[in-house]
Write a structure and sequence with these properties.
alpha+beta, outer membrane lipoprotein receptor (LolB), chain A
Length: 239
């Protein structure tokens, strides 16, 4: 009887083991599709321009990143500049459109969310593997009429679902439930128009839906540069 129970336990463990291996294989194929772990890890800083459209309103922006640590996003809209910065575990913003013409500290919850912007665009799963975030394969499903793998990743700021193209293994989208100013809501991002920049293949179009936004925000990324020289002073909160 003991022998049969041992065999039964081993048999029942096989699906869980297979699932973990499959999730790992999907992430490895995604990393290869982006350009490879070594090429991704070689990017220490990056900069790119943004063309932004929100409900017919056009804006421009520039993003500067020190990978895994800092990001600065400057957006020009209607003659005003909105700046959002995260640097380590702190962050600040200047948003004259909301009556804040002087720097204001970001709430901790927003810093956690913004920290997700301190990595190579579209390489979220490489980051998840590097930082050993727990990953679970939810299953295979449809995403905008494409077959995708749904991977659930437990990140420091919360749980996110990533949708990986079952054919190309590129990242097509993500969604996560976040808390903004005490209100829970779902953030959704779609990735498209993949282009090769140096040795990496990254999305050049992102569509973002977020709590508090009046509609979908479309971002077009251009002039992406890897490993530019970045002055750390740009992340310091002005006094």
């Amino acid at each position: 009887m003991k022998k049969e129970l041992t065999a039964l336990v081993a048999f029942l463990a096989i699906p869980a083991l297979t699932l973990a291996q499959t999730a790992s294989e999907i992430i490895d194929k995604n990393i290869a599709a982006v350009g490879g772990a070594d090429k991704i890890a070689a990017v220490k800083t990056l900069q790119y321009d943004q063309g932004i459209n929100l409900m017919g309103m056009d804006m421009t922006g520039k993003v500067t990143v020190v990978v895994g640590k800092s990001s600065r996003n400057d957006i020009s809209v209607m003659g005003q500049q909105i700046t959002t910065v995260v640097d380590g575990d702190k962050g600040w913003t200047v948003n004259p459109m909301q009556g804040a013409a002087t720097p204001q500290a970001l709430p901790d919850e927003q810093v956690k969310m913004q920290k997700g912007t301190t990595y190579v665009v579209g390489a979220d799963l490489a980051t998840a593997k590097e930082l050993k975030f727990p990953v679970e394969l939810v299953g295979k499903e449809k995403f905008n009429d494409k077959d995708v793998f749904n991977l659930k990743v437990t990140r420091p700021e919360g749980v996110a679902n990533y949708y990986v193209d079952a054919s190309t293994y590129q990242l097509l989208g993500m969604k996560a439930t976040v808390s903004v100013q005490g209100q829970a809501g779902e953030v959704k991002i779609q990735y498209a128009d993949f282009k090769k920049v140096d040795d990496l293949t990254v999305p050049s179009t992102l569509e973002l839906n977020s709590p508090g936004m009046p509609g979908a925000l479309t971002m077009t990324l251009s002039n992406m540069v890897f490993n530019p020289t970045v002055d750390s002073a740009i992340f310091a909160m002005p006094k």
